[in-house]
C-alpha cells in the first residue's frame, strides 16, 4: 500500500513579487496565524479555491474582507473551522449535520445551520442572518493555519466579487494586486471549484450551491432527496454562490456552443470537430468531469485575454460534478457587456 504524504510541502513554488507570495513553511504559517489575530487578512489555499481569511469574530476584520473584495454586505461568508468540535461551539448540529460532518469533513461540503445564542461570530460575516454557513477544509495548509490561529476563519474566495475564482497563488495576486495581502502558496487547488452548500435549517434539506462534492453522494449517505433551492430573494441570500452573476471573465463567455467563430477562444471538453478558433484549452481530453472541475477556473484565467472576442464553451454533461461546472459557467455567462 502506498504511504500517504502527511507533511505540508514547503517548496511548491518560489516566492515571487517581493514577499507577497510566501512558501507555506511552518514559520510562515505561524506568522500568518499571528497576522489573523492582529486583524489582518491572509490569502490561503484550500482544496476548493484560494480563500481570503479573516478573524470571523472581529467586525473590523470581516469588514476588511467585504471592502477588499468589493462584496455586497448582504452576501454572507463561509466560516472555516479546524474540526467538528470547534464548529459545534457556534452552531446547533442536528442528526443530519452530524452524519454529514462525520462522513465528509474535512472536505468540500458547507453546512448551513442555526446559530447558537452564544455564537460570537460577527454579524457582518453572517449578513445578519440567524444561520451560519460552516466548513472544515481538507487542505493541510488551511487546517494548520486555522489550528495555529485558534480562530474561526471567515474566508470567501480571494478575488474581487463576481470575477473568476482563484485556484493558484498567482491568480490571487493577479486579482488583488493593489491590496497588501500576504498569500500562502499551496500550489494548484485539487478540487478547483467551491464547496457544495446545503441548508439544514428546515425540515427538508435544500441545495444552495452545487460544488466539489456530488449531490448524489450526500443523498446516498442520508437516504434522502436534496431539494433544489428557489432563491426568491436575490438581495437576501442564505449563503454564498446564490448571486445570478458570478465567476465571470473580463471578456464575453458563450456556453453550450453549437458553432464557433475564428476570433474566439475555445474551452473544450473531450473530443470534438471544431477547427476554426484562435486558441483552445481542453478541460479534459478524456471527458473526465473531476479533471474538468479541477481545470475550470485555471483555464478561464488563461483564456481571459482581450485578444479573443469571447470564450466559447462546449456543452458539459449535466451530471455528477458537471452540475457544479454548469452552474459556474451559466453564472459567468450572465455578465453584461456594453
Protein topology:
Layout: E1 21-22, H1 26-37, E2 42-44, E3 51-55, H2 59-69, E4 78-80, H3 84-87, H4 95-104, E5 109-114, E6 131-135, H5 140-149, E7 153-154, H6 169-175, E8 182-184, E9 196-199, E10 206-209, H7 215-222, E11 227-228, E12 253-254, E13 265-268, E14 279-282, H8 289-303, E15 311-313, H9 322-332
Parallel strand pairs: 1-8, 2-8, 4-6, 5-9, 10-11, 12-15, 13-14, 13-15
Antiparallel strand pairs: 2-3, 3-7, 4-7, 5-6, 9-10
Helix pairs in contact: 1-5
Write a short abstract of this structure:
The protein has helices spanning 26-37, 59-69, 84-87, 95-104, 140-149, 169-175, 215-222, 289-303, 322-332; strands at 21-22, 42-44, 51-55, 78-80, 109-114, 131-135, 153-154, 182-184, 196-199, 206-209, 227-228, 253-254, 265-268, 279-282, 311-313. Helix content is 26%, strand content 15%.
Could you please describe the fold and organization of this structure?
With 338 residues, the protein is an alpha/beta fold. The protein folds into 2 domains: 21-228, DHBP synthase (Alpha-Beta Complex); 253-332, Threonylcarbamoyl-AMP synthase, C-terminal domain (Rossmann fold), CATH 3.40.50.11030. 26% of the residues lie in helices and 15% in strands. The chain has 9 helices and 15 strands. It has helices spanning 26-37, 59-69, 84-87, 95-104, 140-149, 169-175, 215-222, 289-303, 322-332; strands at residues 21-22, 42-44, 51-55, 78-80, 109-114, 131-135, 153-154, 182-184, 196-199, 206-209, 227-228, 253-254, 265-268, 279-282, 311-313. Strands 1-8-2-3-7-4-6-5-9-10-11 form an 11-stranded mixed sheet, with helices on both faces. The chain has a 4-stranded parallel sheet with strand order 12-15-13-14, with helices on one face. Helix 1 (26-37) crosses helix 5 (140-149). It starts with 20 loop residues before the first strand and ends in a 6-residue tail after the last helix. The model is unreliable at 1-18 (pLDDT under 50).
Amino acid at each position: 500500500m502506498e504511504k500517504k504524504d502527511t507533511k505540508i510541502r514547503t517548496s511548491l513554488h518560489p516566492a515571487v513579487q517581493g514577499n507577497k507570495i510566501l512558501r507555506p513553511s511552518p514559520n510562515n504559517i505561524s506568522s500568518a496565524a499571528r497576522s489573523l489575530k492582529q486583524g489582518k487578512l491572509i490569502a490561503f489555499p484550500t482544496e476548493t479555491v484560494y480563500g481570503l481569511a479573516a478573524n470571523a469574530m472581529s467586525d473590523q476584520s470581516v469588514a476588511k474582507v467585504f471592502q477588499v473584495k468589493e462584496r455586497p454586505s448582504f452576501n454572507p461568508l463561509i466560516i472555516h473551522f479546524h474540526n467538528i468540535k470547534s464548529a459545534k461551539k457556534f452552531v446547533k448540529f442536528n442528526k443530519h449535520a452530524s452524519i454529514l460532518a462525520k462522513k465528509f469533513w474535512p472536505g468540500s461540503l458547507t453546512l448551513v445551520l442555526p446559530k447558537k445564542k452564544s455564537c460570537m461570530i460577527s454579524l457582518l460575516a453572517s449578513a445578519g442572518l440567524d444561520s451560519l454557513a460552516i466548513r472544515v477544509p481538507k487542505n493541510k495548509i488551511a487546517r494548520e493555519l486555522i489550528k495555529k490561529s485558534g480562530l474561526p476563519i471567515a474566508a470567501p474566495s480571494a478575488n474581487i466579487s463576481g470575477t473568476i475564482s482563484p485556484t493558484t497563488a498567482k491568480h490571487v495576486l493577479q486579482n488583488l494586486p493593489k491590496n497588501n495581502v500576504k498569500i500562502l502558496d499551496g500550489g494548484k487547488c485539487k478540487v478547483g471549484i467551491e464547496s457544495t452548500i446545503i441548508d439544514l435549517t428546515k425540515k427538508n434539506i435544500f441545495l444552495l450551491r452545487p460544488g466539489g462534492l456530488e449531490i448524489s453522494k450526500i443523498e446516498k449517505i442520508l437516504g434522502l432527496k436534496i431539494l433544489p433551492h428557489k432563491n426568491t430573494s436575490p438581495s437576501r441570500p442564505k449563503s454564498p454562490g446564490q448571486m445570478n452573476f458570478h465567476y465571470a471573465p473580463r471578456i464575453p463567455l458563450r456556453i453550450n456552443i453549437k458553432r464557433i467563430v475564428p476570433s474566439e477562444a475555445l474551452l473544450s471538453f473531450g473530443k470534438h470537430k471544431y477547427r476554426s478558433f484562435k486558441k483552445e484549452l481542453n478541460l479534459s481530453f478524456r471527458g473526465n468531469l473531476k479533471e474538468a472541475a479541477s481545470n475550470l477556473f485555471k483555464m478561464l484565467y488563461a483564456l481571459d485575454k482581450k485578444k479573443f472576442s469571447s470564450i466559447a464553451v462546449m456543452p458539459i454533461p449535466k451530471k455528477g460534478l458537471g452540475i457544479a461546472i454548469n452552474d459556474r459557467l451559466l453564472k459567468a455567462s450572465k455578465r453584461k457587456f456594453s
